[in-house]
Design brief:
Largest sheet: 8 strands, antiparallel, barrel
Number of helices: 1
Strand content: over 45%
Strand order of the largest sheet: 1-2-3-4-5-6-7-8
Helix content: 10-25%
Order of helices and strands: HEEEEEEEE
Oligomer: single chain
Distance between the termini: 76 Å
Structural class: alpha+beta
Shape: globular
Radius of gyration: 24 Å
Number of strands: 8
Length: 132
Amino acid sequence: MKNCLKILSFASILVLTACANNAVEQTKMPEKTMKTVTYLCGAKHNQPMQVSYSFEGKKAVDANVKFAGKIYANMIRVKAKNDVTQFENADKWAWLVDNIDLDNVMQKDGMMLMQRTAEADKILVNYCIVKK
């Protein structure tokens, strides 16, 4: 009888350990990676802009834009539209860039930095190309 109890106790410990290990594996967050891209913006591509992107796995999740001495921070990715990746913040600033991921972000050009208002969207700068 004692041997049966020892075997059952040992088996219970193995099952609980396996379940605990599985639970830890399931709650792991994707690895976060940062990349900063320098763009040249405007019709003559003479206005520099830096955008720092955060990625979870290969997906871009947020961006911070630095342009003309000002930082447009805490831009969160919103649902992608067609081939566009769009980020917005609480101040209604939006950064649009060609559909990016961790592998292609250094090659994809930006579209525009704009502010959404009740009257109309105001474009601050557009025609952004990756600085080579």
